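Is glutathione placement plausible here? Inputs below.
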Amino acid sequence: MLTVWGGATSRTLRAYWMLHELGLDYEAKLIGPRTEETASKAFRALNPKGKVPVLVDGDLVLTESAAIVTYLGDTYGPDSGLVPRPYTPERARYNEWSSFIQMELDAHTLYVVRKHRDLAALYGEAPAAVATAIEGFNRQVVVAEQTLAKQPFLLGEQFTGADLLLSTCVQWAVLYDIPVSDTLAGFAERTRERPAFRQAAKLNFSISPGA
Ligand SMILES: N[C@@H](CCC(=O)N[C@@H](CS)C(=O)NCC(=O)O)C(=O)O
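Reply from A.M.:
I modeled the complex. Tokens:
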């Protein structure tokens, strides 16, 4: 049985969305970040980082939302096209987009806004860092926008895990009132229409993010 720990955030949504794309059964442990649950001894034993999402598949405990998305596609959907097969140029491109999205559109841009604006009570106010993070997001996201102006998805005609990651970041930006281009807004809208997204979002956002 597959188990996912976490809920209420863009990162946890990624794990549920991919599970639904693959039509897999799973158990959801809907706990929010920075909660009593993530602070508990039992959860820290599972994930010493103290963060969500976490995927448990038998003996495998996996953190990092992009790694979870890729693992699920590799393991449970090798013919689904959701994650290109290893050792191919398509997979290299997929890896490139996934790393880019995680680093350039998430970790040191949107997450900086979250930490130093929305969660300033916990992490400290840093208006200059927030402004730089928004500026960095806008500058980097143009690369995805230019690609999507030419083709429906990042790798071409096929929706992949990289699109799933990008869509969550674009939706996150919109939520933060960071204006995005019509191309990106249209892309986010199209991906939100996928039944797997709808099912995953309903579950994921059935709890509130808390702090
Ligand atoms: N790079 C990780 C980031 C995980 C992460 O920071 N999760 C947040 C919720 S979206 C969290 O649990 N934060 C709690 C904390 O920073 O203590 C991923 O993509 O899974």
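Short version: The two ends are 30 Å apart (CA to CA).
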